[in-house]
Description:
The complex is a heterodimer.
Chain A: H1 3-22, E1 26-34, E2 37-45, E3 48-57, H2 71-87, E4 95-104, E5 110-115
Parallel strand pairs in A: 3-4
Antiparallel strand pairs in A: 1-2, 2-3, 4-5
Chain B: E1 2-11, E2 14-25, E3 30-34, H1 39-42, H2 44-53, E4 63-69, H3 81-91, E5 104-105, E6 108-109, E7 115-116, H4 121-128, E8 133-138, H5 142-146, E9 151-156, H6 159-167, H7 179-184, H8 200-212, E10 216-220, H9 226-231, H10 242-255, E11 270-271, H11 279-283, E12 284-285, E13 290-291, H12 293-296, E14 301-304, H13 312-317, H14 319-324, E15 326-330, E16 335-339, E17 343-348, H15 367-375, H16 379-383, E18 387-391, H17 396-400, H18 408-425, H19 439-445, H20 450-463, H21 467-483, H22 491-499, H23 502-505
Parallel strand pairs in B: 3-4, 5-8, 8-9, 10-17, 10-18, 11-14, 14-17
Antiparallel strand pairs in B: 1-2, 2-4, 6-7, 12-13, 15-16
Amino acid sequence: MGLESYELGKKGEEIAEKYLVKQGYQILERNFHSRQGEVDIIAKDRDFLVFIEVKSYSYRSYGSPVGAIRRAKKQSLIHAAQTYLYKKNIQDTYCRFDVIAIYKKFNGEQLIEHYRDAFYIC
Amino acid sequence: MLVKINSAAVLGLDSYQIEVEVDSSKRLPGQSIVGLPDAAVKESRDRVRAAIENSDFQFPPGYFTINLAPADTKKEGPLYDLPIALGILSSSEQISTKDSNGTVVLGELSLDGSVRPVNGILSICLSLAGKKRKILVPKENADEAALVRGLEVIPVQSLKEAVGYLGGSIRISPHRIDLSSLFKKDPEYGIDFSDVKGQGHVKRALEIAAAGSHNLLMVGSPGSGKTMLARRIPTILPPLSLDEALEVTKLYSVTGLLHGKGSLITSRPFRTPHHTTSDIGIIGGGRIPRPGEVSLAHFGVLFLDEFPEFDRRVLEVLRQPLEDGHVTISRAHSSLTYPAQFMLIAAMNPCPCGRLYDSKQSCSCTPYEIQRYWKKLSGPLIDRIDIQLEVPRLRPEELSAMPEGEPSRNIRERVIKARNIQRERFKDSGIYSNSRMNPKQLKKFCELDKEAEGILKSAIIHLNLSGRAYDKVLKVARTIADLERIEMIEAKHIAEATQYRSLDRKGGEI
Lengths: 122, 510
């Protein structure tokens, strides 16, 4: 991973966090790591505990950002989420996986897309 | 919250009730289906999600465990989509199913939330008959379900409608069907026995075969009309009785062959598998055994054209169902029995080139080729064929003459009368025709007069009849006497019946 894309990702996560706070989410955790996975942002949205994956693009991609999350990434998110629930001893709480995609337009404007309940365990 | 919805599963021809249990818990989102589901059941997860979202409901958050109880039998097919969707919606308390107590729910869901037809509805309804149950079925299956009395059949077209009905906001009146109107229409065939020129003796033999449900083999040169005659057999067969029709329809329903055939099959099946059909295709089979051609021809006709061209294994597997009237197929997962009371009509050439009996043309086959051709038909198989006859080529004057045979309608009337005699005779004994008599019944119902007994005795000696062939002669004679409505079997009946053992007469080869 080049430095440029690392910076882009960092920047994206900051933007996403600002966006979520504005939406009334309470940020609980940034870059939570478990042995076999990681989650970019963990936040509380009213009753829901939300695990958020942030995808940053320097261009307008054509595929769906949800589609860009493949099995390995899913497993990593699920593992991290399970670890978080276990460590904090959280039970009886509705959980959700969201994806936030952030695009940089040619004119430097940001575009944020929020996919709620992007995927589930099967 | 835990919700239970009643449903049913089909195994072979029978069905049993199951419970679809849905439990939701506040966890990471997801769902799992347990209770030995097959691929089609597992896939319902994706159909149900789309159907719920496209029916203006919200797919609820949380983790869903779906159990199909009892958990030790395999569940097949997409018929649990609707009960699963209802279970998910009601476990998240979006809808109420308080009125659903004991209601059996079945149906496949389309992604847009509409309910699609499923297989095996008749079998499920028959197993629930008389229990005063309510059953929610796809609209396309409503006619089929309504054939069974003592059930309240509620047809639904969409998930929304099902939810509305169970919640009490939509009223759907139970579907009813007039059984007698289904039997009123006479089937239209477009072909008739009067189309066939000459071949009077073959028509007579086919009439006897139809009257007593006897197996028949026609041997004749190409173009003599064997196939043409066989195809016209359905036009002289008696209509199915209600019980028979239900049994045949049940078979077609679980096999998924009922679509487009109406709700009830009222005419006898006529199956003509090609000679490349495998033994599994004929007898039935598969991981979870499905009925084969012998079962699909139940109460009807299995017509095997070019008889010796069939695979040897195919011909030999026919022996058991011919004798027993049913087949039991055992596989690792399950052992199932399907009914197979069919009449076998077979047609073949006398030799590979087909000109063996021809007086005008000479046969180009070597004796070895002819022997090999006939070797395909084993003794035990030929023994099981009640009526064996030769179909000669038509003479030029017969060919050029206008066809002027008896119309099928007249023959059918005689056949029906003969069948009615048999139905009366075998009342409460579980069989419907002379060909199915067991030795005890044979003794009781096939009384011979003195002269007839004498002829039969000499026939046994001269034709070297086997024990089974002897029984077959008696059964055919019984049917011939029934056609004439005579109680006691006479000499002429026995004489005609022995005439139909032409392969015995010639020692296995014509």
